[in-house]
Design goal:
The structure is a single chain. This protein is an all-alpha fold. Helix content is about 55%, strand content about 0%. It has helices at about 30-40, 50-60, 60-65, 70-80, 90-105. The longest helix has 19 residues, at about 90-105. The N and C termini lie far apart (about 65 Å).
């Protein structure tokens, strides 16, 4: 009998991902908890099952490369664009602004 297909994010019990478990606690970066607050503030405009779907659609390469909170931010961004809450151009313009402001603060 063949094994059922596992999605790339379904790593529970997967021998490829079986590494020693780190039981230490690490606080998430300050911005990370804001992602939970934003998702909650969106209420019914952003549902958890949509987040799961979008995370799956982002693909294995993204999933393996980013952190827990980063993947959720990416999913929230893509859903926000999909639902036309904002545009990709608006996000990219804001990111350019933030980058410039950050570089100016470094000098």
């Amino acid at each position: 009998m063949s094994q059922p297909h596992r999605a790339y994010h379904d790593i529970g019990g997967d021998s490829i991902h079986s590494l020693p478990l780190n039981t230490g606690s690490v606080l998430p970066p300050g911005w990370a908890t804001l992602t939970d607050a934003l998702r909650t503030a969106l209420g019914t405009k952003y549902r958890l099952h949509e987040q799961r779907r979008k995370i799956e659609e982002l693909g294995a390469a993204v999933y393996e490369r980013v952190t827990y909170y980063e993947i959720r931010v990416l999913a929230m961004l893509e859903i926000s664009i999909e639902k036309e809450f904002l545009t990709r151009d608006e996000v990219e313009a804001r990111m350019r602004y933030i980058k410039i402001r950050s570089e100016q603060n470094e000098t």
